[in-house]
Automatic annotation (TrEMBL):
Lineage of the species this protein comes from: Bacteria, Bacillati, Actinomycetota, Actinomycetes, Pseudonocardiales
Top-level lineage group: Bacteria
GO molecular function, a single term: transaminase activity
Name under which the protein is recorded: DegT/DnrJ/EryC1/StrS family aminotransferase
Pfam families: DegT_DnrJ_EryC1
Organism in which the protein naturally occurs: Saccharothrix lopnurensis
Length: 363
C-alpha cells in the first residue's frame, strides 16, 4: 500500500541505534531471560501508567488470563465482557476455565454499555473485563458500583486517561499487549499485567514462572510466560518516546475529524466525555463497508477492519449459544466500521489523500 495502515519502519528508525546498543549489551551478558532490563522496564512502565507494579509476560492474552487467575477465577465462574472486542478477551476467560458472559456496546464509541451489565451479573460473576477500545478508556467508574473485581483490557490504550487517571489504574488489575502494532509495541510478542496490589502482583509473578518462587520449588501450578530481555530493551527505548507519539496521534486524529466533518456518509469516531484517548485506531463508520474498503485498497490506502465479527458469532464461541440479533449494536457496528491509516508519522498530505479516496468511495 502507498499509505499503510501502520508504518512500523518509521517508528523503528527513531529507536534503531538505542535498540542496537541495548541488544549488544544483552548479547554480551547473555541474560536473555529475566535480565536486568526486564526489571528496569517493569519499573518504568508502572511509573508511566501510575500503578505500583508491572509484571511482564509473554503476550497480551496471557496477561488477561494471568490477571484472572490471580483473582482465583476458574471453572464454574463467569466474567462479563463486551461482545465488541478482539477474541483474545473472551479467549483468556475460557482458558482460565470460566465462562464469558457478553453484553452489548454503545454505538458511537464501541465501548461496553454499563447499563446492560446488571442483567449479565449472577452469583457466579467473578470479574468484569471492560475493553479500552481503539485507544480510549471504557467508563470503569460506572462499573465499580457493581462490587465485582475489574480487569481492564488495556491492550490498545497505553497512555490513555479517564478523568485524569491513566488506564491500568482504573480497575483492580489491567492487562496490556506489546504486539508490534500497538502504541507501545515490541519486536515480537509481549505483554504485561498492571496493578497497585502487592498481593495480586505477587500472584502473577508466581504464575508466570511455573508457579515457582525459587528454582525447582513449585508451590502452585503455573505457566511459562515471561517478557524476553531483548523485548524489554525495545520497549524501554519506545516508552521514552511514547508520550510524544501519542500526542502526534491525537493531532492526526483531530485533522481527520476536521477533514471528515463535511463528508456525507462517513461517521467519525466519538470521544467519551472525560477521556483523553491515544488513538490506537481511528475508526469511522460507513455503509457498504466492504465495497468501500475494496475501493480504498485499490487506491493504495491501507485501511482495515477492527473487528469484523463480534465474539458471539465466531465459531470458537458457538458453545455460548448465541444467535444473530442477540447483540444488535455490536453486530451493526461490525458491519460498518473501517479503520483508517494512523501512525505518529502520518503527514497531513497523506491524510488528505486518504480522505479524498474515502469520500470518493463513499459517493
Amino acid at each position: 500500500m502507498d499509505i499503510p495502515l501502520v508504518d512500523l519502519r518509521a517508528q523503528h528508525d527513531q529507536v534503531a541505534d538505542e535498540v542496537a546498543e541495548g541488544w549488544a549489551e544483552v548479547l554480551k551478558t547473555t541474560a536473555f531471560i529475566g535480565g536486568r532490563q526486564v526489571a528496569a522496564f517493569e519499573e518504568e512502565f508502572a511509573s508511566y501508567q501510575g500503578v505500583a507494579h508491572c509484571v511482564g509476560v509473554g503476550n497480551g492474552t496471557d496477561a488477561i488470563e494471568l490477571a484472572l487467575r490471580a483473582l482465583e477465577v476458574g471453572p464454574g465462574d463467569e466474567c462479563v465482557l463486551p461482545a465488541n472486542t478482539f477474541i483474545a478477551t473472551a479467549e483468556a476467560v475460557a482458558r482460565a476455565g470460566a465462562t464469558p458472559v457478553l453484553v452489548d456496546c454503545v454505538a458511537d464509541t464501541g465501548l461496553i454499555d454499563p447499563s446492560l451489565v446488571p442483567a449479565a451479573l449472577s452469583p457466579r460473576t467473578r470479574a468484569l473485563l471492560p475493553v479500552h477500545l481503539y485507544g480510549q478508556a471504557a467508563p470503569v467508574e460506572e462499573l465499580r458500583a457493581f462490587g465485582v473485581p475489574i480487569v481492564e483490557d488495556a491492550a490498545q490504550a497505553q497512555g490513555a486517561r479517564r478523568h485524569g487517571v491513566a488506564v491500568g489504574g482504573l480497575g483492580d488489575l489491567a492487562a496490556t499487549s506489546f504486539y508490534p502494532g500497538k502504541n507501545l509495541g515490541a519486536y515480537g510478542d509481549g505483554g504485561a499485567v498492571l496493578t497497585s496490589s502487592e498481593e495480586l502482583a505477587g500472584a502473577v509473578r508466581l504464575l508466570r514462572e511455573h508457579g515457582s518462587p525459587r528454582k525447582y520449588e513449585h508451590t502452585v501450578l503455573g505457566f511459562n510466560s515471561r517478557l524476553d530481555t531483548l523485548q524489554a530493551v525495545v520497549l524501554s527505548a519506545k516508552l521514552r518516546r511514547l508520550e510524544g507519539w501519542n500526542e502526534a496521534r491525537r493531532a492526526a486524529a483531530d485533522r481527520y475529524s476536521a477533514m471528515l466533518a463535511d463528508v456525507p456518509g462517513v461517521v467519525p469516531p466519538v470521544v467519551l466525555e472525560g477521556n483523553l484517548p491515544v488513538w490506537h485506531l481511528y475508526v469511522v463508520r460507513v455503509a457498504e463497508r466492504d465495497r468501500v474498503l475494496k475501493a480504498l485498497h485499490e487506491a493504495g490506502i491501507g485501511a482495515g477492519i477492527h473487528y469484523p465479527t463480534p465474539v458471539h458469532l465466531t465459531g470458537a464461541f458457538e458453545s455460548l449459544g448465541h444467535a444473530p440479533g442477540d447483540f444488535p449494536v455490536a453486530e451493526a457496528v461490525a458491519g460498518e466500521i473501517l479503520s483508517l491509516p494512523l501512525f505518529p508519522e502520518i503527514t497531513p498530505a497523506q491524510q488528505e489523500r486518504v480522505v479524498a479516496a474515502l469520500a470518493g468511495a463513499v459517493r
